[in-house]
Design brief:
With about 110 residues, the protein is α+β, with helices and mostly antiparallel strands. The protein has one domain (about 1-100). The strands form three sheets. The protein has a three-stranded mixed beta sheet, with no helix packed on it. Strands 4-7 form a two-stranded antiparallel sheet. The chain has a two-stranded antiparallel sheet with strand order 5-6. The chain contains three helices and seven strands.
Length: about 110
């Protein structure tokens, strides 16, 4: 079930995010403000949980013997009031979409 979750920001203020809820709650007859939950951590702290995954992927690909010149990693992030941020299933069975590019010099050797 999805619900609005208020994530506080480290610099002050907050942001409402449509997030997954682990609990099945009855919401009929509730006012919009009552439907919103409050996150147990800041948005920045929640995003810190998925940062190591992105860093690990890029670091590992940069370490290839023939390392690509460009690395693009795409993944979805879901937010939960209870869990914070986690990597979302993107499409099919994939959680990460990785694109590597090598640019070869097309001019003939001198």
């Amino acid at each position: 079930m999805r619900k609005l979750v208020e994530f506080p920001l480290e610099e002050g203020g907050s942001v409402f995010v449509e997030a997954e809820s682990l609990a099945g709650e009855v919401t009929r007859g509730m006012k919009p403000r009552e439907l919103a939950g409050e996150a147990s951590q800041t948005l920045e702290a929640a995003l810190t949980r998925v940062q190591p995954a992105a860093v690990a992927i890029v670091d590992r690909l940069r370490a290839l013997a023939d390392a690509p010149e460009e690395i693009q990693v795409e993944f979805g992030i879901k937010l939960s009031a209870e869990l914070g941020a986690f990597v979302a299933k993107a499409s099919g069975d994939a959680n990460f979409r990785v694109l590597l590019r090598w640019k070869r010099d097309s001019s003939p050797a001198a």
